Structure formats: C-alpha cells, structure tokens
Amino acid sequence: MRRPKEWTGMDAIQAAALGIIQGITEWLPVSSEGQSILFMIRHINISPEDTISLAIFLHLGTMFAVLMKFREEFLAILNPNSGILRILAVTATCSGITGIPCYLALKHSFNSGEGATLIIGVMLILTGIILSLPSRRSAHRTREEITTKDLIITGLVQGFAILPGISRSGVTITTLLLRNVEQKSALAISFLISVPVVLGAMLLDIGSISEVQPVNILVMLVTSFIAGYITMDVLIRFAERVNFSLFCIALGAITIILAVPGVL
After folding, report:
1. Rounded distance between C-alpha atoms, residue 96 and residue 85, angstroms
2. Which end of the chain is more exposed for a tag (fewer CB within 10 A), N or C?
3. Containing domain of residue 202, as a range?
4. How far apart are CA 8 and CA 44, in angstroms?
C-alpha cells in the first residue's frame, strides 16, 4: 500500500492537535472520526485513504479514558452474573458484520480530498436526522432489562459508524433510546461497547500506521487520553442538554460546500 511522505512530516504540534480534537469530539455526537479526518485533509495534507487509518488509531487514547472511567463495569466481566460480557460479545460480533464491509468499501472509495469531504458531509446530515428520532418515544428500561435483540440491533448499527461523519455514540445511544432503554443506561452501554470495536478496528488496520514517527504516536495517544478523560463528564452532560440534530445537519451542509473545488 502506498505511503505518502506527509505521514513522516507530521510534527508534534499537529499530532497534539489531532489528539485534542479526538479527546473532545469523542463525547459529542459529531463524529470524532469525521472531524479528525477533515483536519488531516485540510491542515496536514495526508492522503484521504491514510486518514482513515490514523483516525481509527486516534480512538485508542479515548478508549483508555473509557476504560478508566468505567473500570468497575469492565472488572465486572469477571463476574459471570454481571451480564457485561454478553453485552460486549454480542454487540462486537454484530458490529463486525456491518463494520468490516463498510471499512473495506471506504478504503476503496476514499481516493480524493473532495470526495472524502463530501462523504463526511452527507454522513453528518444523516447523523443529524438520526439524532432527531429519540424525542418520539420515552425510554425507561435499565441495563439489566436489555435483551439480546436490543444488543444485536445496536451492534449492527454501531458497525456503520466506521463511516466518517456517522457519530458512533450518537447512533448507538439513539438506537438504545428507541428500544426504550433509559438514557443513563444507554449512555453507559454506548461507551462500554466502544472498547472491543476500537480494538477490532485497530487490529484490522494496524499495519497502516507503521510509518508514523513513534514520538508522534505517543503525543497523539497521550493528548487524546488526557483531553478525553478531563472533558468526558462535562461534555457528556453538555451533549445531553443540547440539540445536536440541527447542529450536525448544518455542519454537514457546510462540509459539503467545502467539498466543492475552489471553496476556501
């Protein structure tokens, strides 16, 4: 696979900026992957195909933030009666069913900056439309009441979030709310089930980051972890109070305009 020179030319400041973008946007339903890719295309000049690999890798830092935040829940995996292992196993398997084909298609279609930007814009608008759905139904079921059917549907939906512009947290929380799972439980489940899919996506694409300078890898991971852990609680509460549906639709429209050659 071709490796552009821009990968080794990324400096520590750009790496830190990517980590901060990931750490902040991970907790907002605006697609952290999409925002990171847009930054790379616009400001670092990395080839669109390679931005996917790096955007996936950036999730490792915020994954550690999730592990630390929900450490008690993950330790509960050791307890066979907790149900956490079932939640992770079912959703991860189903995410692979939809996510792997989407990933392979994406790697073949991300061949120009304008095309990549257009895809992100369209997916952001789709995310905005999806985010408008929960207001139609009330949700009341707890994590203990979640069914295998709920997990299968949520896992399948999560797989599509490999597409930049689709907010993983946004679509999974929305799906759980539409399945009548209460917001607090939906939020916790959404972040818990992100861990195995992040690890799976990295294993699928691990060779694609081999030429990134080790110091920049460390900078990205540390900054995304710190930014993610510090801002997690505040931004999650903020996201619960703000209507991101219209925001994502507007952001998607602006992104599509930016895809037009000659604009900005």
Report:
1. 17
2. C
3. 11-256
4. 11
91: left (phi over 0), alpha (psi -120 to 50) or beta: alpha
Q: Is the dihedral of CA 34, 200, 155, 71 positive or negative?
A: negative
Structural domain includes residue 34:
yes
Question: Is the distance from CB of 44 to CB of 249 less than 8 angstroms?
Answer: no
Give the distance, in angstroms, between the CA of residue 252 and the centroid of all CA atoms in the same chain: 16
Total count of domains within the chain: 1
CA-CA distance, 185 to 182, in Å (whole number)?
6
For the record, the structure tokens of 26 come out as: 């991970």
DSSP 29: T
DSSP-derived secondary structure for 96-120: HHHHHHHHHHHHHH--SHHHHHHHH
Phi and psi for 181 in degrees, rounded to 5? -90, 135
204 in Cβ contact with 57 (< 8 Å): no
Q: Work out the end-to-end distance of the chain between its first and last CA atoms, rounded to an integer number of angstroms.
A: 30
Element (H, E) at 216: helix 214-241
The token pair that represents 257 in the structure block: 């305009």
Query: Does pTM top 0.70 for this prediction?
Result: yes
